[in-house]
Write a structure and sequence with these properties.
The chain has 432 residues and is an alpha/beta fold. It has two domains: 205 residues, 3-Layer(aba) Sandwich (Rossmann fold); 213 residues, 3-Layer(aba) Sandwich (Rossmann fold). 38% of the residues lie in helices and 15% in strands. The protein has an eight-stranded mixed sheet with strand order 3-2-1-4-5-6-7-8, with helices on both faces. Strand 4, helix 5 and strand 5 form a beta-alpha-beta unit. Helix 5 runs parallel beside helix 6. The longest helix has 32 residues. The structure holds ligand SAJ. The site of ligand SAJ has 18 residues, from helix 8.
């Protein structure tokens, strides 16, 4: 057994996680709990400081869990990359956003790789977890790390997609199956030896490219199906059919169907972005991913579609949008979370404002936002809905007082089909 395998089995291997955000922090906690000495590296000094004070900054990791691990010296954090020189295993959990032209930005992966290469020594396992296009591990990560070290003998390289679902109370790190691809058989053996110490079910696949593709299929599946029902919502209106009622009825089929629901657009840092990593790679190979591009086109059109619904609803009350007071209820990208990244609410607010409406928002999870160069302050969620010509429900947080909204609002545009569960009243409520 190689030195690395021995260290993993004896749990004396030093683990370094690069990027201690919503993916990296749970990994640090699980490896520390499994008896490894773990260090989280991050460029963000605030995260590092909070971590070393034992204070969690991620909703799914209680401070009561992180604190003792830090206090007992089993986990720490640093902004100093020289810690990589002591690492036996390095897990890369850095962001993979899109740039301004909606193309993959893998600069964080490149800089993490450079830092690892600077401090590389014999017998290191490096695993990339960041969502990226097929070929990244093989083309971007491996070459700098195999110049002075023989792949599969002196350096072990894997890809393992993250499957963190923030807020999910049922599935966490240990009980969510983990797909793992290795650059060689020995790499996958090393990767499996490590991950099996913190995860019940490791799913080996034949290559890192395959593992990268698995993740993209998972999230493309969602984006395409959401695009399907969003398009259905747009044409159901002209058929005089309620798309939500159709989907609820179809969802009674106990096999061969999985419900997705129309909404105001696609938010978050996964679903709107991951499929575009795949379509970008395919374009480079002169192949067009028709479903992905069409889903992106439909999903991206939803905010403007919602603006159109508001215009029509006000028009039916003989009110122009221009000069109307509009309240957008919810700015987070989905209910009961604080995350506003890529939220369609921003496009809806911009679309309404562009047409001369006076727009405010309210969101108990995001009372103030700084996004896209905007600094918006929400109004108090307990305030009256009566002064507004229309209330647009963009995020259906459970904490909104829907019965009071139904009583007070002059008009409600419900993009999440939530009012149905709180009032029989339909006079002043319109859907998608
Ligand atoms: N959305 C719809 N209709 C739907 C489902 C979602 O419009 O039927 C919208 C949401 O409002 C949101 C966006 O799509 O704006 C994304 O929602 P999501 O439910 O996919 O949640 P995310 O973005 O948090 O996706 C994550 C993903 N997890 C990982 O990548 C590890 C995704 O693979 C999970 O399936 C998803 O969480 C989940 O199931 O919660």
């Amino acid at each position: 057994m190689s030195t690395l395998s021995q260290k993993i089995e004896q749990r004396t291997a030093r683990v370094v996680v690069i990027g201690i955000g919503y993916v990296g922090l749970p990994l640090v906690v699980e490896f520390a709990r499994a008896g490894f000495r773990v260090t989280g590296y991050d460029k963000d000094p605030t995260k590092v400081q909070l971590f070393n004070q034992g204070e969690s900054y991620i909703e799914d990791i209680p401070t009561a869990v992180l604190g003792p691990l830090v206090k007992e010296g089993r986990a720490d954090a640093t902004t100093d990359t020289t810690v990589l020189a002591q690492a036996d295993a390095v897990i890369v959990c850095v962001p993979t956003p899109l740039n301004k032209t909606k193309e993959p930005d893998i600069s964080y992966i490149v800089s993490a790789t450079e830092e690892i290469a600077k401090h590389q020594h014999k017998d290191m396992l490096i695993v990339l977890e960041s969502t990226t296009y097929p070929g990244t591990t093989r083309e971007v990560l491996a070459p700098p790390l195999t110049r002075g070290f023989e792949l599969g003998k002196e350096v072990f390289i894997c890809f393992s997609p993250e499957r963190v679902d923030p807020g999910n109370k049922h599935y966490g790190t240990r009980n969510t199956p983990k797909v793992l691809g290795g650059s060689t058989e020995a790499c996958i053996t090393a990767g499996k030896a490590l991950y099996s110490k913190i995860i019940d079910h490791v799913v080996p696949v034949s290559s890192t490219d395959t593992a990268e593709m698995v993740k993209l299929l998972e999230n493309t599946f969602r984006a395409v199906n959401i695009g399907l029902v969003n398009e259905m919502a747009q044409f159901s209106r002209s058929l005089g059919i309620d798309p939500f009622e159709v989907i609820r009825a179809a969802a009674t089929k106990p096999f061969g169907f999985m419900p997705f629901y129309p909404g105001p657009g696609l938010g978050g840092h996964c679903i709107p972005i991951d499929p575009l990593y795949l379509s970008w790679k395919l374009r480079a190979l002169k192949v067009q991913a028709k479903f992905i591009d069409l889903a992106d086109e439909v999903n991206s059109s939803m905010p403007e579609y919602v603006v159109g619904r508001v215009v029509d609803a006000l028009n039916d009350q003989r009110k122009p949008l221009k000069g109307s007071r509009i309240l957008v209820a919810g700015i987070a990208y989905k209910k009961n979370i604080t995350d506003v990244r890529e939220s369609p609410a921003f496009d809806i607010i911009a679309g309404l404002s562009r047409r001369g409406a006076e727009v405010e928002y309210t969101d108990p999870y995001a009372p103030e936002v700084h996004e896209h160069g905007l600094h918006l302050k929400g109004v108090d969620p307990s305030g009256s809905f009566a002064p507004y010509d229309a209330v647009v429900i963009v995020t259906d947080h459970d904490s909104f007082d829907y019965p009071r909204m139904a009583r007070e609002a002059q008009l409600i545009v419900d993009t999440r089909d939530v009012m149905r569960r709180h009032t029989e009243e339909r006079r002043h409520i319109v859907g998608l």
